[in-house]
Specification:
There is one protein chain. The chain is built from 12 helices and no strands. With 322 residues, it is mainly α. The chain has a single domain, classed as Amino acid/polyamine transporter I (Up-down Bundle). GO terms for molecular function: polyamine transmembrane transporter activity. Pfam families: AA_permease_2 (PF13520). InterPro entries: AA/rel_permease1, RMV1-like.
Length: 322
């Protein structure tokens, strides 16, 4: 919508296409991650993994159709459950100490084309929360607190398992190249046996359900918003329609989930994450251009959030990298 205000229609159309494909590709990563977690523990084949993805998407669709409040409550509960397996792994490894030499090891050959997109993906997507801002009471302080909690929880779920995985004696001879999707299950098995591997798998499944349910909620509303802007003339009215009882964008959720599921089944995690970050970069550049455009075109527009510091501090941060 802000792009539509700031730039010509052709730029808005490009942004709509990029955002729509980004949403589909980004969403499709989570069924893939879930299936890889299950496959690591249960040794699933391609067909069985595909069934897991389809069932998983069906569950997330049902959660979303009920309403945004259900998604929000589920997300809070999931965040707490997600941290538990990693905390247990950390506590199990703590008496044996940490292998700081291995933790600080930097491989000679790094696949940058995979490494950078994966790292960027792990810390991207915070802006998607803005798609549900109309359904959040008192959003100004709520969003700031939520972003802070998300950053803390992200670090809490990344750092401890990396320390444990690098230090577990059973994984000393495992090269870092083998750290792939679902590897935390192997880390759990290394420090706590099969029972811990099961706990990690369950935690991963619950975490992915929460993430997928949340993303399906935000991206479906983004898709419905595109329909409101008549971005897809033939189906815009149908796409932007909300359910009378639950107040959810029913049609957008269904379309979103079908395309997401198809991409997840057809493509690998590495392919999806690389494509995801290309699209995300395009959307991010466009968003920054919109930000600058609105600053000049609408200088007196109400802006509820303000970056800490005086203008001089902002100028220093802006020009610092150069």
């Amino acid at each position: 919508m802000w792009v539509n205000v700031s730039f010509p229609p052709w730029f808005t159309f490009c942004m709509v296409i990029w955002t729509a494909f980004l949403n589909f590709v980004d969403n499709s990563l989570y069924p893939t991650v879930l299936a890889d977690y299950c496959a690591t523990l249960l040794k699933l084949n391609f067909f069985e993994k595909s069934l897991v993805k389809v069932f998983f998407m069906g569950l997330c669709v049902f959660i979303n159709l009920v309403g945004i409040q259900t998604v929000g409550n589920l997300s809070v509960a999931v965040m707490l459950v997600t941290l538990l397996p990693f905390l247990l792994m950390f506590l199990l490894q703590l008496p044996f100490g940490f292998n700081w030499e291995r933790i600080g090891y930097v491989p000679e050959n790094i696949n940058w084309s995979v490494f950078l997109p994966v790292v960027a993906w792990n810390f991207s997507g915070f802006d998607s929360a803005g798609n549900v801002i109309e359904e959040v009471s008192n959003p100004n302080p709520t969003f700031i607190r939520a972003l802070g909690l998300m950053i803390i929880s992200a670090l809490a779920t990344y750092i401890p398992p990396i320390l444990v995985g690098s230090s577990a004696v059973a994984l000393d001879n495992t090269p870092f190249e083998d750290w792939d999707n679902g590897f935390w299950v192997r880390v759990g098995d290394a420090v706590g046996g099969y029972a811990m591997a099961v706990v990690v798998t369950i935690g991963g499944v619950i975490s992915t359900v929460g993430l997928m349910a949340t993303l399906l909620a935000t991206t479906s509303r983004s898709l419905a918003g595109m329909g409101t802007l008549n971005a897809f003339p033939c189906v815009s009215g149908w796409l932007s329609r909300y359910h009378n009882r639950y107040g959810t964008p029913f049609n957008a959720i269904v379309v979103n989930s079908i395309i997401t599921c198809a991409l997840s089944v057809c493509f690998s995690f590495h392919t999806l994450v690389e494509l995801d970050q290309i699209l995300y970069s395009l959307c991010l550049i466009a968003t920054l251009l919109v930000f600058l455009g609105l600053r000049f075109k609408q200088p007196f527009l109400e802006r509820p959030y303000r970056v800490p510091g005086r203008p001089n501090c902002g100028a220093i941060l802006w020009w610092g990298p150069y």
